[in-house]
Amino acid sequence: TREGVPEYQKLxxxxxxxxxxxxGTHGTLEYSPIHYxxxxxxxxxxxxxxxxxxxxxxxxxxxxMNLVSHEYVVAQEEWAGEKSRPxxxxxxxxxxxxxxxxSAQSLSGxxxxxxxxxxxxxxxxxxxLSLRPIERELRHNKLxxxxxxxxxxxxxxxxxxEFSDTIRSKRVSVTKALPALNMKKVVNAYExxxxxxxxxxxxxxxxxxxxxxxxxxxxxxxxxxxxxxSADPRNTIIIMSGRERRxxxxxxxxxxxxxxxxxxxxxxxxxxxxxxQSIGEExxxxxxxxxxxxxxxxxxxxxxxxxxxxESSLAWHFKDADPHFGAWQAKDMQVSMExxxxxxxxxxxxGNHIVEVRHRAVSKARVLEAVLEHLGTEASVQAHGGAEVxxxxxxxxxxxxxDMFQFLQTWKDDFNSPPPSATPSATPLPEGPSPPPGVPPxxxxxxxxKTEAPPVSAVxxxxxxxxxxxxxxxxxxxxxxxxxxxxxxxxxxxxxLASSFVENTFELRRVLRAFSSVSKKDxxxxxxxxxxxxxxxxxxxxxxxxxxxxxxAARPPPPPGFLEQPPAEGPAEGGP
Length: 576
Description:
The protein contains 15 helices and 15 strands. By secondary structure, it is an alpha/beta fold. The strands form three sheets. Strands 8-7-6-5-4-13-14-15 form an eight-stranded mixed beta sheet, with helices on both faces. β7 and β8 form a beta hairpin. α10 runs antiparallel to α11.
């Protein structure tokens, strides 16, 4: 089928000349070093050649699956095992396989070579011919186990299974395109909040992604925005990053912000006396000795890539490599590492032009959980004037941030679900004087201003504060459960668990600048002696069901720490 291709004809001519030169130099009348078969061979004859060969040499420089290597492994099975082995052979043959063949990443029992390196190729042939029988047996068993189990039926079943899983996961997690972030809505929510939590990823979110850590220093304009936001006593700012803590400390250490380095392996809460903590002080890091050689192997073969060794992880960057070749090499490297690390508690993360290996216990979600627990303590709530967290703004750009989005969504669902110990009260709480004898409670005189309170969940005496220093599941003062206003934002309109998106880092900076303007206004009000920019409303007699009290009656202030509900269209009409 290839004889009509000009390139193939030229290659065949070159091979013919090379074979003739070698046989003419090293051959005799009775011996030819090379038997060159340049024709179609029947399948049974080809299988016999496979069976008798001591070494199969595949030196393709660009290949797809390459079934020749699989066929050779199957043909050599007869020579495996001393009891069933025919006489004349001391073990199965050896497969020497080009690292550019598609099957090179799967057939790990082969001797892999770079066909462009002639010295390495010659050494591989010598190694294959001189291996001890026991080594050949072990290599062959590894190869045959893979070839015999990963059949065409297996591949089809696995592919269709993963395809179905992908479809189901996309239906669950990303059912529609993300809506753009409503700028007016988020700024209004920020302005009304009294206890805010802002969580930002660093690379690709607050700043553009840089190839070298030294180039990722934040711009002065960003520092000014963060300084204003962190100076607002209502704000808690947390910045998450995959960078090492020494870089974050030098760039942002002077600000009153919380920092999480290396995806949360190290973190530090806001405050002058806060120190770096580790969530993995007892995590074993000897796995780096297994991962580093694999990354080095692909770095040497992929121009423009480099390895970043962190305290808790190893990262392979390919932003400066050829886009297609770099992505291809990244996938091949991930396959190679999955074979080696399958029994270790590690995960391989493919981010934005980066492949990183880290411990499974490390994630940004764990740091976020610790921050929310800290903000739910009684001391933190009292420091915010008795207000719990009522505004959460979380923004990120890649897969490592999906953990935060998923955690916050789960946390929100748990917040809105009733506590396991909560049981509705059958008796409404009385308010005001009791009705006269003989008058049913519902017919009490209007002048008594009696209001039937709705049933509430049973709460402890410290309503709204977490028990044992943790954030409660939504109980606030009076037992009314309100969830904080939450914005999960993704940079770019890609598939994500976030609730909305902004186009790029510049759009995000517009949002943060708007937050900064609100905080500056609040700072001016505080300097003028106004303790709270939210005016407090004097308590007025309530109308029926607390719904209005007539025209001009002031509404009661919202529960501490939560957004005030919008006013009704008009005064309530009548009773129940």
